[in-house]
Amino acid sequence: MIFLGAPGSGKGTQAQALVPNLGIPQISTGDILRAAVKAETPLGLEAKAFMNRGALVPDEVVIGLIQDRLVEPDVSGGWMLDGFPRTTVQAEALDQLLEKLGQPLEAVVLINVPEAKLVERLTGRRTCMTCKRVFHVLFNPPPTTIPFCDDHADCPSELVHRPDDSLDVVIQRQAVYRDQTEPLISYYEQQHKLHSIDGDRPAEAITGELKAFLG
Ligand SMILES: [Zn+2]
């Protein structure tokens, strides 16, 4: 199963919430990349060389890492892929890999949230650099007066608006999603695998609908 959605849609959170329910692991490309680099596998070392140069890790390396991950014993009952594919080229490469492995893709879940809502979600985030807790100015304000964190009253640190959450960066990320990843919606529609879920609701409501649909 693949989770598809724009930055801030909560697809990673939803995949994670389903792990205990479905008993299959969530595979995020960020996690497997970090793990392979740490374990110094041949592909991990290759990926590290690109990352050290500040370059993007090429698709064929990422596909290789996914292949290594999909033959591990804990995924024999299935898997949830989150953060990949991001482009049509990647989706085609993944289709080829899955065919080779004999692991058919059963469903693509799209967490659908209007772009304006995503911008509001992401730009409102404030992060405590000491305890790493993330708040939101509207939806999850800190227990004490903004701009201070108060994690169990022992974190008097100032909250930070991270550069990643600035309006410019957020808008840029949404544009990249729209241009490069959104074409995957019709790609998977044509394969009759797309299930669109209204993501503009509390996370628990979305998880509930997903459990009902997948259970
Ligand atoms: Zn804090």
Q: Report, as a whole number of angstroms, the end-to-end distance.
A: 13 Å
Principal-axes geometry comes out as: globular
The CATH level-2 architecture of one domain is identified as: 3-Layer(aba) Sandwich
What is the highest CATH level, the class of one domain?
Alpha Beta
Which labels suit this protein?
single chain; Rossmann fold; binds zinc ion; 8 strands; alpha/beta; globular; three-stranded antiparallel beta sheet; five-stranded parallel beta sheet; 215 residues
Can you tell me about this structure?
26% of the residues are buried. It is built from nine helices and eight strands. It has a domain of 147 residues: P-loop containing nucleotide triphosphate hydrolases (Rossmann fold, 3-Layer(aba) Sandwich), CATH 3.40.50.300. It is globular and about 55 Å long. Helix content is 48%, strand content 13%. It has 215 residues and is an alpha/beta fold. The strands form two sheets. A five-stranded parallel beta sheet has the order 2-3-1-4-8, with helices on both faces. A three-stranded antiparallel beta sheet has the order 6-5-7. The structure holds zinc ion. Zinc ion (ZN) binds next to loops. The site of zinc ion (ZN) has 8 residues, from loops.
